[in-house]
UniProtKB/TrEMBL annotation:
Protein name stated in the entry: DUF3048 family protein
Keyword terms, alphabetized: Signal
Residue ranges with Acidic residues bias: 29-48
Entry-linked InterPro entries: DUF3048_C (IPR035328), DUF3048_N (IPR021416), YerB-like_sf (IPR023158)
Protein source organism: Evansella caseinilytica
Length: 356
């Protein structure tokens, strides 16, 4: 009888212990670990690839090899030549007086390869100096005596639109000569190759470019005009807030591409004053592109008064002794005379007017 009671007691105690153990495990199981989903960063399944290269004249990133030369093309800018072709695809454009109140454009092509460029017109010596700052192959049709002196001396790798008229340059039947000579990027490459020019040299990387959000200096300026002495040749710039670019106008007409209708819309406008001197009856000029001096830099709807210097043939912006960066995209450089008031006379600000 005593043994039976002990066995019963034993089983009762064992049951109690088992129940206690199960209860303890359930209580432990109720303490769920904290949810770490909010603190764990999931890896990006489709990260944006790191672009390995940068176009040296536009500052835009790419995976394409950029170690090849640019082309500098002389493009007419008289009223008879507008609208032009291929200018919106240029990386850098110089606009400088050529004769009288008419400007001419030196457009540099590297990051984009237009199918139509023109109308191509004649050279000037100061354009050749500016061209060589980018070590570009230079294309023109005709030129001033000073320009031919440099070309004949081998100072520049030159492609003549007159020599190659009918092959690498073609005439449009839509316009009369001399406003109708056109070429293409591919034709320029073929002409340069035929002439034996080295196209494998890299563009000098003198230009600085800002990262997004880096620019902060300057006063708001949404519209301005560069005055070259004639309503048909004065150029107005209007800032477009949506694109962050400046649209260009001549006599109220926006500068659009002839073939595509795309607007010419630089992201940087750099206006510099330089000594100009009329030297002949055609009102051609000698222009000092080495002097340095006052300048305005327009970016992101703002303006800064800065200075310009010629660094190895490139006209570049400086402030307080430091070189300033451009925004990635197209850069337009306007030269105006330093005499007769310089910038104060040739540039007018309209602070309350924007594109649209």
């Amino acid at each position: 009888m005593r043994r039976l009671n002990r066995k019963c007691i034993y089983f009762v105690l064992l049951s109690v212990l088992l129940l206690a153990a199960c209860s303890s495990k359930e209580e432990v199981g109720l303490e769920e670990p904290e949810d770490d989903k909010d603190t764990i960063e999931e890896p990006d399944e489709n990260p944006e690839p790191e672009l390995a290269y940068m176009y040296p004249l536009s500052g835009e990133k790419t995976n394409e090899d950029t170690s090849y030369r640019a082309f500098g093309v002389m493009i007419e800018n008289s009223a008879q030549a507008r609208p032009q072709s291929g200018i919106y695809q240029a990386d850098v454009v110089y606009e400088v007086l050529a004769e009288g109140t008419i400007t001419r454009l030196l457009a540099f092509y590297h990051s984009m390869q237009p199918e139509i460029i023109g109308p191509v017109r004649s050279a000037r010596d100061y354009y050749i100096y500016l061209n060589n700052g980018f070590d570009a192959v230079y294309a023109s049709a005709g030129g001033s005596p000073g320009a031919f002196d440099l070309i004949n001396a081998g100072y520049v790798d030159h492609i003549s639109g007159l020599v190659y008229d009918g092959s690498y340059f073609v005439r449009s039947s839509e316009r009369k000569a001399p406003h109708n000579l056109y070429t293409s990027y591919a034709d320029l490459v073929n002409a340069a190759t035929e002439l034996g020019y080295d196209l494998t040299r890299s563009v000098p990387d003198q230009l600085l470019f800002a990262e997004e959000g880096e620019l902060s200096d300057g006063e708001e300026l949404l519209s301005f005009e560069v005055k070259y002495g004639n309503a048909a040749n004065n150029v107005q710039y209007r800032y477009d807030e949506e694109s962050g670019s400046y649209y260009r106008y001549y006599d109220g007409v926006r500068m659009d591409d002839l073939e595509t209708g795309e607007p010419v819309a630089p992201d940087n406008v750099f206006i510099v004053e330089a000594p100009h001197q009329v030297i002949d009856e055609q009102q051609r000029r000698a222009i000092d592109v080495d002097a340095g001096g006052r300048a305005y830099l327009m970016q992101d709807g703002k303006v800064q008064e800065v200075e310009w210097k010629n660094d190895d043939g490139m006209i570049l912006p400086y402030k307080d002794g430091k070189r300033l960066p451009y925004l990635p995209g197209q850069t337009w450089i306007n030269l105006v005379p330093s005499g007769n008031g310089g910038l104060d006379n040739y540039v007018e600000f309209f602070r309350d007017t924007a594109e649209g």
